[in-house]
Amino acid sequence: MIRVPLASSGLEEDDIDAVIATLRSNSLTMGVRVREFETAMAQYLGAGHFVMVNSGSSANLAIIEALLRPTKGSPRLRPGDGVLVPAIAWPTTIWPLIQLGLRPVFVDVDPETIMID
Which are the contacts of 60, defined by CB distance < 8 A and separation ≥ 6? Predict the structure, then answer.
């Protein structure tokens, strides 16, 4: 069996130096680096906006909230809608759905077809 690590560090010296510089700046959140990153990502994605959040959990909540309040012509979720989620998932994948009035529908994959079962 091949062991795949759940998480690993991809940090390089430049990354560590940037973190230290940010810590020394007394601007841990919503500082210049965050604004620079948001602007660069919005341009890279061709999006009008990009919002940095503190975690993947917050990102899940923000994207579900955005899908409940779409702009004109974009897809929309409505309270009570079912949303397919993996049968094995972190609570932070499922809880934003429940918190915002959606219904998680747990699905698994058929190992023979690799399709939703």
Answer: 92, 93, 96
